[in-house]
């Protein structure tokens, strides 16, 4: 056998186990999920028989009040959380850019929220915001800043509160990613800009930001995809309530699928979120490409 | 930082101060809550489940993902990059989409309620992640050293195992770190695929919450076990952690 053929076979043998694994345990269920979404398929009703209903599940999701609400909430949550995380994260990253002992200690602290089990984060905030014994909740209610039932129980305040929790949890991650990008910037260009007498703002806007753009998009797409899949923190704090005010696509899907065993409808919910995530990812991939090309032209 | 301090403080708070209204800021620290945790929960069993699931999935993911990442990075096949992107896409799929059919699949082959079910499904996401990450590591590695080793009479396996692999150790450590963290922190999958014997720490935490005889103090103490190991790991492997964040998707 020729060497090239042997190499091909060898590489194939290395790749095959993972490809087969993903095909059987991820892609096959995924395909099944797509198929299920066209059926009325409930394990608890009529002995779990399947009836083909075409696009009915999707129509239901988009016309149903709860479904619409979940879709809107998910988008509001994603955009709200990611915008704040980006602004605050960029600020933090710029502050921590200079290498000093103090900054290194701050960095270690930044890791803490990122590594705490998300479930525990939800529990912590739930306790802190409790009106009768929580440190925040008690005084906020006592001083009349919030309604006596607390932030998480109000239909208008619950979602912003959860967005705030997400910002607390993930801003450090955005900061860490942007910081890694800042540290990788070519120092000669930055020095040249400083030597030319550019002000700090000019340097930031004209030199740093354009060069940092690929990292910025990377951080944004990462957070967007994760925020869109938000589940843990909502599930343990409000469970989607009050009155669907914080219901997200994932929470709704899990409820429909794994509590009511409404497999067809839940699959439709899952597929809609996959579609949204795929569209966002595709958009950002294009932006990253363009930014990469621009950065290389400089 | 306040939320973290609260978690720590609560765990050492005596039960009588737990629900005082207004909340008590000063209290005598106590280890009572930790003693209570061991009375109510089989902490060692829960830790063991969490460990088996996260280490098991990490090992399996590395075994599958590292060679695949290498093969895709070195392949001259036109669609190799496409396959690599497919792995990346698998990682971004919300788990609910695969969990339902996977649940039915596990029920049919009788693995429901075992560690295996959780390991298998966590490994899909983890393996996809490892493959993509190692793909980008190997791709940024010059081929010269392997070519030289091959002309010196090294086997193909030797070029992979003894020449290429040692140079990407940081990537492997970062991948392993993320796999362990991901499985350790998950509760959604484990909640539906395990039973009372095989449930990990995270599921126990969720189940304990809201039960009458379990106070926030006990919960806080139990959360220590769930949070501290990962935090320590990330702090000690700080460098790899940040590397993984930036390389994992780019």
TrEMBL record, chain A:
Subcellular location(s) per record: Cell membrane
Annotated TM spans: 9-31, 70-95, 107-129, 167-185, 206-225, 263-288
Gene3D superfamilies, sorted: MetI-like
Superkingdom of source: Bacteria
InterPro entries, alphabetized: MetI-like, MetI-like_sf
Membership in a protein family: Belongs to the binding-protein-dependent transport system permease family.
Organism, as annotated: Kaistia geumhonensis
Membrane topology (UniProt): Multi-pass membrane protein
UniProt keyword annotations, A-Z: Cell membrane, Membrane, Sugar transport, Transmembrane, Transmembrane helix, Transport
Domain ABC transmembrane type-1, chain residue ranges per copy: 71-286
Protein name per the record: Multiple sugar transport system permease protein
């Amino acid at each position: 056998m020729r060497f090239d053929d042997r190499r091909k076979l060898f590489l194939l043998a290395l790749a095959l186990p993972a490809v087969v694994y993903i095909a059987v345990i991820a892609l096959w269920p995924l395909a099944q999920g797509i198929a299920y979404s066209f059926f009325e398929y409930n394990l608890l009703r009529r002995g779990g028989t399947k009836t083909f209903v075409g696009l009915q599940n999707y129509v239901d999701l988009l016309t149903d009040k709860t479904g619409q609400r979940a879709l809107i909430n998910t988008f509001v949550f994603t955009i709200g959380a990611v915008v704040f995380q980006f602004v605050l994260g960029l600020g933090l990253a710029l502050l921590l850019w200079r290498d000093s002992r103090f900054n290194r200690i701050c960095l270690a602290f930044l890791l803490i929220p990122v590594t705490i089990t998300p479930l525990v984060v939800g529990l912590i905030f739930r306790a802190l915001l409790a009106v009768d014994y929580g440190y925040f909740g008690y005084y906020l209610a006592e001083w009349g800043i919030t309604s006596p039932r607390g932030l998480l129980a109000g239909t208008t305040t619950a979602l912003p509160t959860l967005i705030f929790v997400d910002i607390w949890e993930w801003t450090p991650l955005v900061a860490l990613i942007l910081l890694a990008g800042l540290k990788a910037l070519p120092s000669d260009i930055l020095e040249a800009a400083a030597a030319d007498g550019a002000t700090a703002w000019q340097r930031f806007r004209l030199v740093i930001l354009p060069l940092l753009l690929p990292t910025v998009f990377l951080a944004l797409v990462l957070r967007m995809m994760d925020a869109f899949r938000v589940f843990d923190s909502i599930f343990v704090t409000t469970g989607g309530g009050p009155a669907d005010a914080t219901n997200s696509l994932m929470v709704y899907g899990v409820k429909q699928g794994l509590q009511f065993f409404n497999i067809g409808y839940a699959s439709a919910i899952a597929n809609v979120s996959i579609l949204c995530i795929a569209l966002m990812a595709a958009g950002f991939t294009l932006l990253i490409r363009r930014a990469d090309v621009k950065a290389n032209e400089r | 930082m306040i939320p973290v301090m609260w978690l720590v403080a609560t765990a050492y708070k005596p039960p009588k101060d737990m629900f005082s209204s207004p909340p008590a800021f000063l209290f005598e620290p106590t280890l009572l809550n930790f003693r209570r945790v061991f009375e109510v929960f089989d902490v060692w069993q829960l830790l063991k489940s969490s460990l088996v699931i996260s280490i098991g999935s990490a090992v399996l993911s590395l075994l599958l993902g590292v060679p695949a990442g290498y093969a895709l990075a070195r392949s001259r096949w036109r669609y190799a990059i496409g396959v690599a992107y497919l792995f990346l896409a698998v990682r971004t799929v919300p788990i609910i989409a695969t969990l339902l059919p996977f649940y039915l699949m596990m029920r049919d082959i009788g693995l429901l309620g075992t560690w295996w079910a959780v390991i298998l499904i966590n490994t899909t996401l983890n393996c996809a992640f490892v493959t993509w990450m190692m793909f980008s590591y190997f791709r940024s590695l010059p081929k010269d050293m392997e070519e030289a080793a091959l002309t010196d009479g090294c086997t193909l396996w030797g070029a992979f195992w003894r020449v290429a692999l040692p140079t990407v150790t940081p990537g492997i450590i970062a991948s392993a770190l993320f796999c362990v963290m991901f499985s350790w922190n998950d509760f959604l999958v484990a909640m539906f695929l395990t039973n009372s014997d095989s449930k990990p720490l995270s599921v126990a935490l969720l189940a304990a919450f809201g039960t009458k005889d379990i106070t926030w103090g006990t919960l806080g103490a139990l959360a220590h076990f769930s949070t501290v190991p990962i935090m320590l790991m990330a702090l000690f492997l700080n460098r790899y952690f940040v590397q993984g964040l930036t390389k994992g998707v780019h």
